[in-house]
Amino acid sequence: MTKMNIFKLDFSRNFKTLLIWSLVSAAIITLFMMLYPSMLNSDMLALMNAKINSLPPEFVKAFHMSAEDFTQLPNFFGYFIQFVFIAACIYGMILGANALSREQSEGTIEFLYSKPVRRGGIARAKLLSALLSYL
Predict the structure, then answer these.
(1) pLDDT along the chain (135 residues), means of 10
(2) What would the 3-class secondary structure string for 7-64 be?
(3) What is the pTM of this model?
(4) Rounded distance between C-alpha atoms, residue 58 and residue 11, angstroms
(5) CA distance between the termini of the chain
(6) Looking at residue 68, what is its pLDDT?
(7) Domain map (residue ranges) of the chain
C-alpha cells in the first residue's frame, strides 16, 4: 500500500464529512445574508442601539461595539463570518483528532504498519488528506 493509496482512502472517508460541513457553512452564510435587509430597518437599528446602550460603557468601548456598523454590508459580513470561522475550526479539530485515531479504533493501524511504508509517510498522507479536506 503506497502513500497515495492511504491518501485516497483517507480522503474518501472524509468526503462525506466535508460535504456536510460545507452545506452547514453555506446554510449559515445564506441565513445571515437573508437577515441583512432587516438590519437596514430603522426599528432594528433602534433595538440594537437600545441593547448596546444597556451594556456597560467600558464593555462597549473594549469591543468597539456600535449598532450603526451593521447597516453596512462589509461590517455585517465581518460580524457573522466569525461564526463560520468557529465552525471551520471545529471541523479542523475533528479532522485532526480522527486522522490516526480512526485507524487505531478500527484496528487497521497494524495492517498499515505491516506495509512497506514508514510511519512518517502514513502520518504525512493523513495530514495531506486532512489539509485537502479542510481547504
Answers:
(1) 70 82 88 84 79 86 75 82 86 80 71 72 71 69
(2) HHHHHHHHHHHHHHHHHHHHHHHHHHHHHHHHHCCHHHHHHHHHHHHCCCHHHHHHCC
(3) 0.63
(4) 48
(5) 26
(6) 66
(7) 3-44+71-134
